[in-house]
Amino acid sequence: MENEEIRKPVEIKEKDQLVFPGQFIGVIEQFLPGQNTYVEEANIYSTQFGMAHLDRRGLRVKVFPKRKAQLVPTVGDVAVGEIVHASNQMTSIAITSVNGKECVPSYTCLMHISRISRKYLESMDEAVRTGDIVRVKIIDAKTLPLQAESTGINFGVVYAECSQCGGKLKKIGTNKLKCTSCESTENRKMSIHYGSPMALA
Ligand SMILES: [Zn+2]
Q1: Is 25:8 a contact under the CB 8 Å cutoff?
Q2: Ligand 1 centroid distance, CA of 196 (Å)
Q3: Could you tell me whether strands 24-27 and 176-179 are parallel, antiparallel, or unpaired per DSSP bridges?
Q4: Would you say the pTM of this structure is higher than 0.90?
Q5: Could you give the domains of the chain?
């Protein structure tokens, strides 16, 4: 967009107008600045890409941000999320990214204990715990909630905190972690990317 376009006030009296961040919307003598706007030298600008809207009485202008098209995960996608619940058989994951792209709003994804590791697991605790960040593969996306697995070296826990003190857990073996604060040890089904900041996206 040309700078001149951005400096020209948008005509929002009749209907909502598409605006860009930094776009001049009007002056405070015309209306009050509302949500997602800011004022500089009595001029009102938008902070967002979205639709500028004048309220019914024509007093206040606000901008409704336009959201990016929502990601729809499919089978084979790589997802990262937080374990929000872990029972004996099933974990529930709040997915925050899919194939490296931020996922807003988050999807809920289920992972059965038999899908966590190729090895037989006695209990969920030895593989994942609530609060862990996991890297998983989507295996069923036909219906919600999505289903995932974490078998294979690339998948599994990528970040975990100590269940005793909340300290950072450091990898000391294939499935073993040690707390950097209280030195207690815990097991997880870890990804080879455990601890790498890159694995969190
Ligand atoms: Zn600890």
Answers
A1: no
A2: 20
A3: unpaired
A4: no
A5: 15-65 (2.40.50.100), 78-200 (2.40.50.140)
185 has a pLDDT exceeding 50: yes
Q: Please give the mean pLDDT across all residues of the chain.
A: 90
Closest CA to 151 of 177, 187, 190: 190
Q: How far is the CA of 129 from the centre of ligand 1 (A)?
A: 14
Does residue 127 carry a pLDDT above 80? yes
**pLDDT (tens digit per residue) in 64-90:** 888 666 678 899 999 999 999 999 999
Q: How far is the CA of 86 from the centre of ligand 1 (A)?
A: 20
The rounded Å distance from CA 178 to ligand 1 centre is: 8
Q: Quickly list DSSP for 74-103.
A: -TT-EEEEEEEEE-SSEEEEEEEEETTEEE
* Confidence band for 44, pLDDT divided at 50, 70 and 90: very high
Question: d(Cα 110, Cα 27) in Å, to the nearest integer?
Answer: 51
Tokens 């925050």 belong to residue: 96
Strand duo 37-40 + 43-46: pairing = antiparallel
